[in-house]
Request: fold
Amino acid sequence: MSGQGHSTQLEPAVDNCHVPLITAPPDGPVDGKATTELQLESDHSVRLDNLGPMVVNSDGTLSRIANWQHMTEPERERTMRVLAVRNKIRLEKQQTNEIQ
Reply:
């Protein structure tokens, strides 16, 4: 709308105020779920099976399946079979890329 005196420059939403970029986590449960605090010593191990399997992404990063706890046992078994094959292929590809 040129010629009508309108400015195309955006005004800041808050003037002269400090606005934190992120907020502090809430005290207590996160997303309504209870959290567990673990005290670890160097000679102890922790199993995180309830979080589900690690997924090797195509770029080599790792993630987890978000809905693992809501899957039925047959769904988990199928997912594990598929992930085992896919993760193996992706890890081999990553190792091949590192060698080259």
Remarks:
- Residues 6-12 have pLDDT under 50 and may be disordered.
- The first strand starts at residue 54 and ends at 56.
- Strands lie at 54-56, 62-64.
